[in-house]
DNA sequence: GCTTGAAACTTTAACCTTGAAATAAATTCG
DNA sequence: CGAATTTATTTCAAGGTTAAAGTTTCAAGC
């Protein structure tokens, strides 16, 4: 019964290998997305992420809501939104009843622009992940979901 | 005939969901690793990555080998190695027979330091991925492996 | 030998990122 | 009310990241 020994040793090694694979895969895909966003739309992944969050919130989002959703620091979002605003894609409006806060919203231009980017983005993902069948996709999704549960999230 | 439309639509959505999950998971884990490397070792993930590459090359690596292995830009590695060198963890030695190039090597201090970091890192990964069993781990690994094959890699 | 093109790096400009400090407004509470 | 605390956001310093441009050296080919 070397099965017992295998069970004791394998998981740690398998996990480290899995992590490196996970990292390599996501970095590879992120790299492709970043490059295409740059060459085809003249934008960046962080900007796309912020616009994606905003596009789901027609009423707008506060800075802290954006940073919370994207799990990045507050100061980070300040700069990205600054650039979005100076490009006419987003707008800061005073938050009603709280003079400290502002609500960020996409402009009409921002919505149009994001529509185009999102359509391309979805097609790219479909292309880049085409190697994974629907069943495998579902299995991975559930496995990672279980993982997400235990983190602070 | 909405079956045809469904077949055309569903996999794409599943893949997009999978991608977002993949991204969330790896970013979450990377965030934990980055924070622990910072608080417990006063270093960063990029520095750890470079040191990990160097630790596998006792003879040292050229700058372009490092950037190629890590799939980051050349200019990027320049800065990271600069800081490693100024901290006494690595050293640039002239490449024999090529005055353009230098070979980067870990110093004795760098090797010691990396040993400690690597041990902690492996334990952290084991902890963070503990929610995934060995079988699931293997399955995900193979699915992502199939994916990696088709990319430029 | 010289010139031309490729290769190995570094530099630069612009952006992203974080954690910590600073500002300012809202809230709590004595 | 007024002080202390908390909350929302920006600013700052240091580092990471890329693509593009610049420098130096090597390798061919004439």
Offer a concise description of the structure.
The first copy, chain A, is mostly helical. Chain A has helices at residues 3-41, 45-55, 63-70, 74-86, 108-128, 134-150, and strands at 61-62, 90-94, 102-106.
List keywords for this structure.
homodimer, 153 residues, mainly alpha, Arc Repressor Mutant, subunit A, three-stranded antiparallel β-sheet, 6 helices, 3 strands, globular, DNA-binding
Task: Please provide a written account of the structure.
- The structure is a homodimer of 153-residue chains.
- With 153 residues, the first copy, chain A, is mainly alpha-helical.
- Chain A has a single domain, classed as Winged helix-like DNA-binding domain superfamily/Winged helix DNA-binding domain (Arc Repressor Mutant, subunit A, Orthogonal Bundle).
- Helices cover 71% and strands 8% of the residues of chain A.
- A 3-stranded antiparallel β-sheet of chain A has the order 1-3-2.
- Chain A is globular, with a radius of gyration of 20 Å.
- The N and C termini of chain A lie far apart (40 Å).
- Chains A and B meet through helix 1, helix 5 and helix 6 of A and helix 1, helix 5 and helix 6 of B.
């Amino acid at each position: 019964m070397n099965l017992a020994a295998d069970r004791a040793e394998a998981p740690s090694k398998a996990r480290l290998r899995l992590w490196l694979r996970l990292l390599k895969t996501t970095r590879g895909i992120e790299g492709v997305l970043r490059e295409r966003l740059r060459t085809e739309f003249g934008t960046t992944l962080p900007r796309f992420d912020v616009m994606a969050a905003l596009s789901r919130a027609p009423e707008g989002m506060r800075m802290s809501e954006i940073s919370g959703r994207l799990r990045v620091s507050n100061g980070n979002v300040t700069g990205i939104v600054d650039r979005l605003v100076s490009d006419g894609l987003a707008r800061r409006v005073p938050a009603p009843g709280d003079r400290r806060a502002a609500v960020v919203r996409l402009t009409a231009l921002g919505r149009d622009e994001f529509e185009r980017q999102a359509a391309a983005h979805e097609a790219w993902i479909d292309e880049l992940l085409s190697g994974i069948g629907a069943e495998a996709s579902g299995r991975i999704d559930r496995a990672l979901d279980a993982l997400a549960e235990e983190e602070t999230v």
